[in-house]
Sequence to fold (502 residues):
Amino acid sequence: MGRLPLAIPPLLFLAAIPLQPLGARPAAEADVEARLRGHIETLAADAMEGRKPGTPGGDLAAGYIASQFAGLGLVPGGGDGGFYQPVKLVERRSGTIAADWRIAGTVVSIAPTEMALRGGDGAVRTAALPIVFGGYGVEDARAGLHPFEGVDVKGAAVLILSGQPEGVAHAPGYAARREALLKAGAAAVLRIETDEQGWPQLRDTLNEPRNELADDAPAPITGALSPAAWQRIAEAAGLSALTPADMVKRDFRARRIDGTAAFSIDNVSRPYTSWNIVGRLPGNDPAAGALLYLAHWDHLGLCRPEGVPDRICNGTVDNASGVAMMLEVARGLIQSGKRPVRDIWFVATTAEEMGLLGAHALAKAPPVDAAKIAAVLNFDTVAIAPRGAPVAMLGRGQPALDAAVDAVSRRMGRRINPSDAANALAQRQDGWAFAQQGIPAAMVGGSLNMDLLQAYLGQEYHKPGDDLSQPLPLDGVAQDVELHVALGLMLADPKRYRPPPR
Ligand SMILES: [Zn+2]
Fold:
């Protein structure tokens, strides 16, 4: 299995993370480390084929976690008396697509290869929609840009350029611009590509299947136009003379194009079921609420085409390591001899890589009344920090949680990294499904250090190289397991941690 070279030389790595003074490591920690390695070697083995939901490898991973929960003596919480909470998913992809563009009284023909269209369910046939051209579509008060001021996009097909406008600092990315337009009621948002060479690859990417929760409303209509397709539309609409510089002027406004567009998409759908694995450690007083631990078990599956030597995205760090950590935190809490006051739930979630789908399904149908959840702690991508890394947080800025984390860290002799830089990744992890509802949620540990996270994201992240051949600093994870056993007992005690009223 090919491993890419490290981005940063090891010496720099050591310099970035000052280590604690050398000292004897407790024997118990070495045991934890060995068990972590065992879980990770099982979950990231080639036999699990990258743990994609809806595949035999994914089912094997879910089965392993359920058997571990059973072995630990957790109470099944998945419904029907077992550990499995079904998560109904649907894979949708665009089959035949077509569009009918009528601009200034003439038909502009755009071939299916010159556009990408996706969204909706089954056979989608839109009405003839009004068309709005929005330039870059960047609304930015600081730059004085308000292209949509006084322009109604409701029910319209909105076309915007995909790139970043030159000379506008901090412009939101294309995805954020698209979401804002959909929120404002656009019936469809299409990006205009300007890079002719990159077009085939972009089109193929947009035509890849998407996965959604079966019970959710299907995604709205989005897509893209090739540079050549846009050129013909712009010519017919009399927009050819507009330059990129015109579109970042303060007085630039989006404009209705004289014409309509009607879209048709035949979606090919495949419904299937995956599972969250749910277990409970009973507290002395379940009426006092609950603490919830999360770690996603899924990964990307076979992520390279047939014939490539290594096709498997094993997801060793992302997130076999987080699941292993959750299993050992559960064991540590059980073996601590101290019974928590609040119930503690452990959920290995599915379909995180498809857009936090398992966590969203869990948040919609939580095993315990959402109003009773005192805190949610998520483990994702944990095996990147060595022993002694300062304790950092994603979710810092929630005073009651911050205070608990800092108090426990100090008691364990750990240094604290008070930065809130990791909050930038808040929406990219499962805890977001709960944080969105105002439930205190965080990630805590040595791995929330942004330098370490960025180094990993720039290297093996989402590649076949995130496999068992890379060095895994499991001593750091073992130390964080110990931290979380203490933190879990504190957060599960209403006398020591009270979530803010909501
Ligand atoms: Zn991932």
User: Anything to note?
Assistant: The chain has one domain: 27-502. The pocket of zinc ion is lined by residues 318, 353, 462 (CB under 6 Å). Residues 316-335 form the longest helix (20 residues).
